[in-house]
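Task: sequence in, structure out. Protein: RNA exonuclease 4.
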Amino acid sequence: LLKQKANSSNESLSTCQTHTKKKVLLAVGNSQEVAAINGNRNVVKAKPANKTDNGSAKDSPPLTKPKSKRVATDKNLNGTKNNGKGCKEKKKNGSILKEKGDIKHKRRKAEGLAEQQPKEAEIWFDDVDPKDIEAAIGPEAAKIARRNLGLETGQSEQSVEQVLVKEKASEGLTGAVAMDCEMVGVGPKGEDSIVARVSLVNQFGKCIYDKYVKPTEEVTDYRTAVSGIRPENIKTGEDFKTVQKEVADILNGRILVGHALHNDLKVLFLDHPKKKIRDTQRYKPFRQRVKNARPSLKLLCERLLNVQVQTSEHCSIQDAQAAMRLYTLEKKKWEAAVKNKSNNRNRK
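Result:
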């Protein structure tokens, strides 16, 4: 009886020890998994489940293998069961998050590019050459400037006018005015010229004066193909003396802009202070750009404004507008050059 009680006690003790060792090994295994998840390299190795402290083999059943690091990581990150679905869902979610991140990145990039591009309202043609804009800011800004100015290929008459005239602007007199005259031929072969039409525009290209002039001599060549003048236009025109005085009053004290202005002043029998004349044919930077010592108004408009003028019969209003537009394109530089030239003369 005593022996049976002793054996029973030993079996209970052995079972208790076995359960205790299982708990210890499970605790060590869990610590190993936690260490693996946290990226700890110094992982404490668990003792083999089938050996006792003194190295002897034990008949206890083998312990359940600890979960793999990958599964443990998935469980820790996703909070899902170890059935493989958590990892799949995470990858799917990760893909969605990445796509959302890409969209946000593209949106920020687009907004950044939009901020870098100049606003169309900030660009107008006063004293600004689209080529200078392209060199200073870039092709996109130059494109906006040209679009605002209507500088496109194959333009209609309306688009040409949009380039030459500022639509919402004053129609009154300004400090600078542009003038152009149409002439007809007199004399035996029509080689001499007299004025037949006078047109003036203000700094914005708005017409402020336009009159046909009654001829003072017999007209032998109306030059209609170029001048656009017909007999009925000048037959009922204004008296020359009246036109001469009215034009002189407008020009008085103002900057006079035009192309080959000496011809216009000659037929009007008028004079104007040289320091107040801005002749687009004589402006050196224009001649250098088009590589022509005496460029025509048509050539300057094609090269510098990208518009076609004088394609058929000439119009003195449009020619005056074109000259003024060329002047406003270079106004700041032009006026600075005149001022420097004047200062240099005064110093001498």
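The chain has a mean pLDDT of 75.
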